[in-house]
Every structure is written in C-alpha cells, then in structure tokens.
Write a structure and sequence with these properties.
alpha/beta, Rossmann fold, seven-stranded mixed sheet, 26% helix, binds adenosine-5'-triphosphate, binds magnesium ion
C-alpha cells in the first residue's frame, strides 16, 4: 500500500503528522527520507505533539536519538526519534545498544537511515519527502503487515 500527496505549506506537514499519530502501532518502525530541510523533523514533531508529548522536540543531531513517552490506546509507549546523519560508524550504533531499541514495543522514527544501511532492520513504513516549489511532496510506502495496518488507518485530506 502507498499514499502520495502534496504538502503545500508547513501547516499541511503538521496536519499530516496529526493524522498519522493515531495510526501508530507499538513496534512500528518508520524511515524518513529527504534532503536537508525536507521536513523530516517537522513531521516527527507534529506526530509527537499529536501523540500527547507536550514539551520541546529537538532535532537529535548530536545525540543521535531522543526518547519520548507517548500514549497509544491508553498504553504508554516509547517513541525513539533517531537522526543518524552524524553517526560515524556502525559500531557506534551497535555499541550504544540502538539495535535493541527496534523491538515489538517501541516505535522508532529514523532520519538518515541511509547512514546505517545494513545494520538497521527493514522498516514497516518509508516516508519520502521532497521539496516541490514552496511546498513538499510526500509519499508513504508500507513494507510490512504492520505498515499496511498503519496506512489503512490514515485519513488525510490536505487543504490544497
Ligand atoms: N510542507 C511544507 N512546505 C514548506 N515548508 C515546509 C513544509 N514542511 C516543513 N517545512 C519547513 O521546512 C523546514 C524543514 O526542516 P526540518 O528540520 O524538518 O528538515 P529535516 O528534513 O529534518 O532536515 P535535516 O536532514 O537537516 O534533519 C522547516 O523550516 C519547515 O518550516
Ligand atoms: Mg531533521
């Protein structure tokens, strides 16, 4: 299953994040793709706020990961937001125990998964963002049953 649309402005990115939040399932792993400034962190921030996180969402550029507690169907779930742009080596990822965070309980959203190719488990969902004029193109692609389950729940109609 896949879904494509245009996000005309940042409000549309926020609206997509809000629509995606109730579709998240424990164990889901999402890889976000797109150039610098494509909107990967903006989308993650919108998902987190819609999923009940009230504080700041900073880009995990130097820490590589930031954990959040969110609530899914009244169950507390850890969502890990990775940004692997500055990851130096696969060893750094493995020694930090990041591989173990990709399990049936956590939700993982990964920016720059390309940097950890070969050591990351395949995602349930790919989200591709690209700059298109003043806005963004977005494509969501499910790769697993869990990814299909998530996309089947998505109800999103952008205001173009
Ligand atoms: N649909 C949109 N249309 C226009 N601008 C947008 C849209 N969505 C987000 N933006 C803007 O694009 C920028 C995206 O920045 P963001 O930090 O989210 O990018 P990123 O993909 O995470 O980059 P990086 O690879 O550096 O982490 C922000 O300035 C945001 O306001
Ligand atoms: Mg980012």
């Amino acid at each position: 299953m896949s879904y494509k649309t245009i996000l005309a402005d940042e409000a549309a990115t926020q609206a997509l994040g809000k629509s995606l939040a109730p579709c998240l399932l424990p164990g889901l792993s999402i890889h976000l793709h797109g150039d610098l400034g494509a909107g990967k962190t903006a989308l993650t921030r919108a998902i987190l706020h819609a999923a009940g996180h009230q504080g700041h969402v900073k880009s995990p550029t130097y820490t590589l990961v930031e954990p959040y507690q969110i609530s899914i169907k009244q169950r507390a779930v850890t969502l890990l937001h990775f940004d692997l742009y500055r990851m130096l080596s696969p060893e750094e990822f493995l020694e930090a125990g990041f591989r173990e965070e990709f399990n049936d309980n956590n939700i993982c959203i990964v920016e720059w998964s390309e940097k950890a190719a070969g050591i990351l488990p395949p995602p349930d969902l790919h989200i591709f963002l690209s700059i298109a004029g003043h806005g963004r193109k977005v494509e969501l692609q499910a790769l697993s049953d869990k990814g299909n389950e998530c996309l089947a729940l998505l109800r999103f109609a952008p205001n173009l």
